[in-house]
Design brief:
This protein is mostly helical. Helices cover about 60% and strands about 10% of the residues. The model has no long low-confidence stretch (mean pLDDT about 90). GO terms for molecular function: AMP kinase activity.
Length: about 180
């Protein structure tokens, strides 16, 4: 977990590989649907372009389906989900039905000026239409209002592992590895 631009995707790919688990990224799934111009992709694009979250019912169904696939049965890493308190409850239901559980929740912390700089740079290099400065700032506000409260939930459950997300991807990756139980 972490605000947009914290490096979740970069770190999630590396960590999923390290644990030998499925990397389940809602953002990647949405972008693939956008590229293929599916109905879900067109719906998701409208929300993403405005810096809003894709509605829970769409996201929850997609995650439930993905977690039920064979490669996620032994080990998985969620990237970009859950993002709302309602999604936490739905994830609890999904995992209960699959007789699975979360082992931990990693939260990357990065100062806001750095987040904005990273996302503006990413917009230049990747051409992502959802990374304009106004949308980036709005996405930070949405994160603080809707997703940041999840940190307290996972902290109360004893699952939260906060990691400094400043520095190079390699430095952050080492901090994550050091913070995880052996």
């Amino acid at each position: 977990m972490g605000p947009p631009g914290a490096g979740k995707g970069t770190q999630a790919v590396a960590l999923a590989e390290r644990i030998g688990g499925a990397h389940i990224s809602t953002g990647d799934i949405f972008r693939a649907n956008v590229a293929q111009q599916t109905e879900l992709g067109q719906t998701a694009q409208r929300y993403m372009d405005a810096g809003e979250y894709v509605p829970d019912e769409v996201t929850n169904a997609m995650v439930a389906d993905r977690l039920a696939q064979d490669d996620a049965r032994e080990s998985f890493l969620l990237d970009g989900y859950p993002r709302t308190l309602d999604q936490v409850a739905k994830l609890d239901d999904i995992l209960g039905a699959l007789d699975s559980k979360l082992d931990g929740v990693i939260a990357l912390t990065v100062v806001e000026d750095e987040l904005i700089a990273r996302l503006l740079e990413r917009a230049k290099s990747s051409g992502r239409s959802d990374d304009t400065e106004d949308v980036i700032r709005h996405r930070q506000d949405v994160y603080r209002a809707e997703t940041e409260p999840l940190l307290a939930v996972y902290r109360d459950r004893g699952l939260l592992i906060e990691v400094d997300g400043m520095g190079t991807p390699e430095e952050v990756g080492r901090r994550i590895a050091d913070a995880l139980p052996s």
